[in-house]
TrEMBL record:
It comes from the Bacteria. The lineage of its organism: Bacteria, Bacillati, Bacillota, Clostridia, Lachnospirales. It comes from [Ruminococcus] torques L2-14. This is Polynucleotide kinase.
Amino acid sequence: MRFVVFLDIDGVLNTRTTVKRTPYGYTGIDDARVKILANAIEKCGGGDIVLSSDWKVMDRNHEDYRYLVSKLGQCGLEISDHTIDKERKRGLGVKEYLELHPEIEEFVILDDQKFDFEHYKKIWERLLITNGIERAEFASRTPAVEAILFRDYIKA
């Protein structure tokens, strides 16, 4: 069984109140929020991070992308892959990723926006809407079990 977290960065690992900055001066990443993510993934028995954030379009050698990788790495996390989507259709990007990777049996999505997720029932039920990971809430009125467990692990 393979567990995956589809991860947005802005609004999940940082918020408007974040004071840290990336090398290029954009909103940085809060170490405490990375630790929350790492702990939740560990409590799930481990899992892969698939980047669904706009950060995925950065060149892998860009200083800000290396900054992201370094921040995740401090808690033993690494990005295993990323979705491919255009025109802010993250739901479609996750759907297509899952179709290409049938070995993924369980997943959650962490994002601060709803985009087109609601168009895909299986995806919508696993979406946790955030304003900082510690304030994750269910998008769906009937969340999937893995979304319920993952949120409980975040709140613990």
